Every structure is written in C-alpha cells, then in structure tokens.
Amino acid sequence: MAEHRRLVIVTWVVVIIACGVSFPFLFKQLKAPNYGVNGTASEQASTLVQRHFAGQGNEQDVIVFDTARGRIADHRAAIGRVVAAARASEGVVTVIGPFDPQAKRQVSPDGRAALAVVGLKGSGHDLPGRAEKLQTAIEDAGADGLEAHLTGYSPITNDQTAVETADAERAESVALPIALAVMVLAFGALAAAVLPLLLALAGLALTFGVIYLLTFGFTFDAFLLTIVTMIGTGIGIDYAMFIVSRFREELARRGVTRDGERRHEAIVEATGVAIATSGRTILFSGIIVGISVCSLFIVNAPVFREISTGVLISVACTLAAALTLLPAVLAALGPRVNAGSLPERWRPADLRSEEKAANGPWARWAHLVMRRPVVCGVLAAAILAVAAVPVASLKYGIDLGTASLDGRPSAKAQHVLERSFSPGAVSPVQVVVTGKGGAPLDAAGTRNASRLAQQISQDPRVADVEAVPGDGRMLLNAVPKVPIDSEAATGLIRHIRHDLAPQAAGQRVLVGGATATFVDLSEETTAKLPYIMAMVLGMSLLFLLLVFRSIALPIKAVVMNLLVTAASLGITVAVFQWGHGSGLLGFTSVGFLQVYLPVTVFVLLFGLSMDYEVFLIRRMKEAWEQGHDNASAVAAGLEHTARPISAAAAIMVAVFGGFLTAGILELKEFGLSLAVAIALDATLVRLVLVPALMRLFGDWNWWLPAGIGRRLPRAGQERARPPAGTRATG
C-alpha cells in the first residue's frame, strides 16, 4: 500500500464520496424493528389472521381524537373528515370510526376523547411507511380544536426511529471532541491524533454504503444504524491508534524525524513493520469480533440477524480501511505524522530512547504489581465478582420506549388512551381458535371458542374481548388494560397459553399480537443463550490458541473476558433493572433489561475486549521472543501498549458513554454496559490482572506441548527465541 499510496488514497476518496451520496437514501430504506421469531405461535397466529381474517389487516392501529374544550361529539364533522382521509390512505383495509354503527365503546366516558380503529395491510417492510403516510393524512385533515394522532406498533417505531437518530447525533457530538482531546494527549501530536478519527469516518462511510446496497435484498431497522455507528466509531479509532502508535515507534527507531532528511525507504519499511505487527494484531482482533458476532445467527429472530450482519459489515469495512487506506496515508505523511507535537515529557515512551522506555511509568507499574501478584490479582478478581452478582436476578422484557417519545404523535395518542381508555388498545392480543390442523371449527369447537373468550374477558388485566368469525375459525381480539410492553401484559399471554388454551380440548389455540411476539423472542433468547456462549467461548479459545501458541494464555484471556462481561451486565442490571441511579441518568426503571441486550452485549463485549488482550499479549510475546525473561517481557509489553490501550479505552468509554444522554432507554442500556465493560477491562484487567497472572504463571505462560505445536498452523512469522544465556533482561 505504501508503494501505491496515491492510487489507494484516490480510490478511497471516490468510494467515500459515493457512499456519502447514498447515505440520505439509506434512511428511507430502514424499517421498523422485527421482534418476531420464525415458526413460533405468534408468527403462526399472524399468518392465520392474514389468511382467514383479511378484513382485520396485518396490524391494528388506533387514531385517537381529543379535545381540550367541549365534548368530542361537537366535532363529529371534523372526525368524519379524518376518518375519510384515513380510509383513502395507502394500505388501509378498514377504519371503524367512533360514531359508526359497528363502533363499540369508542367514545370515552367523559365525552372528551374518541378513537377510530384502523386495519393496515402489508409486510413488515411496508407497514412503517404506510403508517407514516397515514399520520400525514390525519394531520392534513385535522381541524382547529380537535387533536388527532395515530398510535400502534408501526407508528410507535416510526417515532422511535426519529428520536433514536437525534439521540445518536447528540451522543456523537459529545463523544468526538472528547476522543480528539484524548488522542492528542495519547499521541503527543495533533496530526497523529486526527488520523484515527478520519479512519473511523472512512470505515463508517463504507459500512453505510454497503448496508444501503443490501437494503434492496434484505430488511434493516433504524436501531441497527445506531449500533453500527457506536461500534464502528469505537473499533475504527481503536484499530487506527494501534497502527499509528507502532508506525511512529518504527520511525523513531530508524531516526526519521520531521527536522531530518526524508528517507523514503525507511518510511516504507516503518509502514510495513507497523502493518506486519499491529496490522496483524487488529486483523486477529477483527476475526475474534466476527466469530463472536456470528453466534447471533443461532437465534432464530430477524432482529439478531440484522445486528450480527450490521456489526460484521462494520468490522470488515473498518479493517479494510485500516489495512489499506491508513498505511497509504502514513506512507504519504512520513515524519509529518508528528506535526503539532507536545513537549517531550508528554510524548509516548515509544518516541523516547529505549533506556527511558524501559524505565517508563507503565513498566514500573507492571513491576509493582508483579511484586505482589496474589494480592493484586485476588483484589481485582473480587471487585469484578462482586459487580457480577446482580446478573443472577436478570430479567428480560421489551420496552417500546413510549415514555421517551414526548411530543411525538404516538406519545400524545398513548397519553389519551391511558387517561380515557385502555393503554392496551394500541395493540390487542390476537387469539386464533381453529380445529385440529387449522381446520374450521365444528359446533363443539365454536362453543369452546366462546367459552375461551368469556374466560379471557374475566381476567382483570383485560378491558374488552371482541369475537370475530372468519372462514369457520374464530379470532378473539383482547384489549389489555395494561401497557402492551409491561410485565402484566406478558403474564397475560402466558396465562392464556398455559392455563386457558389447554381447556379448549380438541381445538388449536394460537396467541399472537405484539405482546405475544415479545414473549416468544424472550423465550427464544433464553433458550439459545447457552449455545451462543459455548460457540463464542469455544471458537475464541481455539483462535487464541492459534494466535498465542500457548495453552495458558487463551484460557486466561477467556476467563478474564467472562469476568468483565459478567461485571458489566451486573452493573447494568443494578442500574436499569433495580433502578439505582435512575435520577442521575434521567430514566424510570421498567424492572427488566431489553430482551436482546444481554446476549448482544455479551457477544460484542467478548469480541471488543479481546482487542486489548491480543494487542497487549502479542507485544509481551514479541519481547519474550527477543530474549527478555518473563517479568521483563511483561513490563516491556505493558510499557509499549498501556498508553494506547488506555487512550483507546477512554475514547470507547466516551463514545459509548455519550449514549447515556439518549432519551430512549435501550440506548442508555447499551451505552452504560459497553462503557463500563471497556473501563473495567482497560483498568482492572489489563493493568492489574494480566501482569499479576503473567507473573504467577511465569514461563508456563509460553508453554505449548511439542505435539500440538507441530500440528498447529502458524498465524504469522515468529522469531526463534534466543538461547537462555543471551536473554535480555531490560
């Protein structure tokens, strides 16, 4: 890349411009999150509703009318215009207005509010766009003195998308200036500090371009874009910092300075060494992230497939930028990468003499920890173990985030529903009753279906039940009195499925609707978690065995990563499930974590935190192969990597922590869990546990049975270790 730097840079500029042009169109292609699980009862119920009850549509939404003065009946003409406009909107199959003959209890008891029930048809890909057009039609047909707002699953997710996008932009505006300041201090030079930001932006641009192309064949939701931005920014800065740090070290080692002669061969050589060492390290790190993320494909749900696909694309695009664009830019800059340097005492050890580096602050810290390895190791492990305790009480759920949508149409509508009707009217529970194998009901089956409807209506969590016949089957629309994303609503679903449905002997009873979909996703996630953990741990262990060529190092890395991940999730449970710090962070606890958060965070954290492990241990191994004894190799590795690792971690914490300013609860949860994990990993693990355990294991750190060593393929060039008598100790 260094030899063809101009061609590489020009090619990347063209690609970035093309991807930038496509970015505005990407938002139009993004859809609402699909929380469904393939083959579950809720999906089968949805299929039967579409097949036998076409007049109901694929989704039931609600137009809520409210008046601040007078009675709602005084606005009958205006309501009629809104209902007529809704009926003419694309995808609407039915609208039952509050004053239509078939309307049932659609005017509030106080006479101030009313609602119209809307049936929307279309796939999950079409519904959000049609809901948006319907909201526009409602607003255009409105009248003074009457408020009309649309709510339902798709309208809520549309508003969520708008709020999440604003939240992400605000988080980035907070994080990026902090990241730049940290990198200036870490590199001791302004020019070097800017490069990781530019690389992260290039990687994100390519990622968005690839995702845009894939939207023509696959479905992606808006939340994925936030996750991709969060992860892509973090790893982009991380990977670039490691390569730039090594490049500057190699320039200093060859005596290439800004004030001296520009030696092209030395610059090309320094670029090559940086890519051969740190470049190979980030490639290994990216592969580990990819291995971890691929495990999400085990979960039979589109939301997990979208997350894993998006993160894989982000990692691949970031690696492509780091291994092609960055070396070309470094070769073009040469010693000018040190432009805007700080005073010498503020510069990294790699830019100072070897003697000063060998006695640097991080080397002294490593020796301090290694003098008391048992005490330091036990103390660090105990802190992580205590932080992990709340994981035992982890509970899943789905929070639609309506509390964070103040001012949006769906939030206004939801407020009126909770005040004057039932919050569950936004998405009724759909119970489909058929004969065996989906056949029409016989007379006994019809009686059983009617009895089931009566039993459901007697539940204190149910406001109303409507029985709709169709093609010899029965659809029971049960409107909950409770919010559809509450624990009471999920309890209602389980009660119908496990207690009431078995009483309808000889009939097939399927429970669907939004809440049932949430329950199925929670159960699928819980069932697949052990398999995901086994795959991530097993594949990571095998890959690290290949990278480190050691038995002890991969096992220690996996165990330490498990500790950090458990501690991070434990703190997240204590904050968001138990509610500690809710006032400080500006949220109200819903009593559970978002259903896809724990498993996604486990996968992402396991991959991300392994970056630092690979970077640190490979540098220690490099020193050991040069002849240093175990303690000196550990100190040398920490001295050369602690500053970039600490800086990269601080930037990651700033990027992820910026999402704590978000209004959407799930963004806060993701931000806190990732930020806490990175902070714990870079401090307690890399600065305490690693040197302590490396000291305790001694030369066993580097042991690999000869038989395994002969059969194990080599991940890259490795130097022969000098004889014992020629080992370096400094």
TrEMBL record:
SSD domain: residues covered: 193-332
Transmembrane segments: 7-27, 174-192, 197-216, 222-244, 282-304, 310-333, 374-398, 529-548, 560-578, 584-610, 645-664
Keywords: Cell membrane, Membrane, Transmembrane, Transmembrane helix
Keyword GTP-binding: no
Cited SUPFAM superfamilies: Multidrug efflux transporter AcrB transmembrane domain (SSF82866)
Recorded topology in the membrane: Multi-pass membrane protein
Compartment annotation: Cell membrane
This protein's GO CC annotations: plasma membrane
Signal sequence interval, chain numbering: none
Transmembrane among keywords: yes
Cross-referenced Gene3D superfamilies: Multidrug efflux transporter AcrB transmembrane domain
Primary subcellular site in the record, as a coarse category: membrane
Protein name: MMPL family transporter
Source species of the chain: Actinomadura rubrisoli
